[in-house]
Amino acid sequence: MSTPPSPSTGQRPVDNVVVPLKHPGRIVAAVILLALAAWFIIGAATNDAYGWDIYVDYLLDTRIAEAAVHTIGLTVFAMTIGIVVGALMAVLRMSPNPVMRGFSWFYLWIFRGTPVYVQLVFWGLLGAIYQEISIGVATLNLETFLSNFFVLAFIGLGLNESAYMSEIVRAGLQSVPEGQTEASKALGMTWTQTMRRTVLPQAMRIIIPPTGNELISMLKTTSLVIAVPYAGEIYGRSTDIAYAMFEPVPMLLVAATWYLAITSVLMVGQHYLEKFYARGSSRTLTSRQLAAVADAEGVPPENIKVVGPGTPPVSGDNATHTDTKEDGR
What was the pLDDT predicted at 195? Predict the structure, then answer.
């Protein structure tokens, strides 16, 4: 037990000497996991069925690189549709109008209740269902539009994604306390100003993480657009090459490597975007708050030096500095 601080001296108590517990089970488990990983890596490296020579030859093939660009395009266009339509459906879902709420609920029920692969097949068959649309005396020919499978692919993916983004946006908007909106109205802000300056900056902290996950999931879901059918993305192009060579395993590894590389870039972008919108929720204390903590403890913490308005200057070895430092950070 540490000695309690003396009111007269204002010294901090002596810290206890803590001996960490030993966990031999963790060490044994770590050794087993490392052994299994080494066994798998060595076995895969020496197994000719993986076709590592073919993997190296086709990893940077121009056809695969072009397919990666198409995959990114599908992902960006589909997520744009998903976010825009999803935000609209979220607003309709929270509308006091029962017709709008009912339409939003029916939309979500259809697109969340059916598999995305089935929806993509339907979009591919749309050209056989609708050749033209008659609007009064005018007739709109849909043959050219419905024969563009790239457009049909990202529209099908985007509308499916919008059903999930709607719930994400709705959860983010509802996470902001009602008092924030009332305070904005009291300051004379319009609805647009309230959403832009008050609600959305706070809601984005809730919206960004699941949206990042949906973006990464969308990147991988593009491998299903073969159902449209569109085979210009990474998986479709790699399987085409694999069928021509009768070597499916190395081409699957090529596709997996490209997916991992693009996903890694998206994860880094998501990290910095989350960090940007989390600035307002930081627990970093100001100099006045740190000084208040020091007053409450009787003496300043040993690992923090405080300077700020209202704090008296200290000379000598105990002089304070403008920077703060925390142990282990």
Answer: 80
Secondary structure in 3-state letters for 104-139: HHHHHHHHHHCCHHHHHHHHHCHHHHCCEEEECCEE
pLDDT at residue 6, as a whole number: 55
Whole-number Å distance between alpha carbons of 231 and 237: 6
What integer pLDDT is reported at residue 110 of this predicted model?
Answer: 93
Q: In what helix (H) or strand (E) does residue 294 lie, and over which residues does it extend?
A: helix 287-297
pLDDT of residue 144: 79
Is there a contact between 189 and 112 (Cβ–Cβ < 8 Å)? no
* Low-confidence residues in the chain, pLDDT < 70: 1-16, 279-291, 293-329
Q: What is the dihedral of CA 63, 66, 72, 77, to 10 degrees?
A: -120
Per-domain residue ranges of the chain: 52-281, 287-313
Tell me the pLDDT tens digit for each residue of 204-245. 888 888 898 999 999 999 999 999 989 889 999 999 999 888
β-pairing, 138-141 vs 132-135, is antiparallel
Asked if 110 and 122 touch (Cβ cutoff 8 Å), the reply is no
| Those residues with Cβ within 8 angstroms of residue 291's Cβ, 6 or more apart along the chain or in another chain | 306, 308, 310, 311
Question: What own/partner pairs with CB < 8 Å and gap ≥ 24 does 265-271 have?
Answer: 266/212, 266/215, 266/216, 266/219, 267/212, 267/216, 270/208, 270/209, 270/212, 270/215, 270/216
Distance of CA 4 to the CA centre of its chain: 48
Angle CA 211–215–218, to nearest 5: 130
**In whole angstroms, what is the distance from residue 170 CA to residue 174 CA?**
6
E-strand stretches of the chain:
132-135, 138-141
Rounded Cα–Cα distance for residues 193 and 119 (Å): 38
* Burial of residue 240, with CB atoms counted within 10 A of its CB: 0-12 exposed, 13-18 middle, 19 or more buried: middle
Q: In angstroms, rounded to a whole number, what is the distance separating the alpha carbons of residues 6 and 8?
A: 5
CATH 1.10.3720.10 is right for the domain spanning 52-281: yes
> Can you tell me the distance from the alpha carbon of 146 to that of 329, in angstroms, rounded to the nearest whole number?
57
Q: What is the pLDDT of residue 327?
A: 44
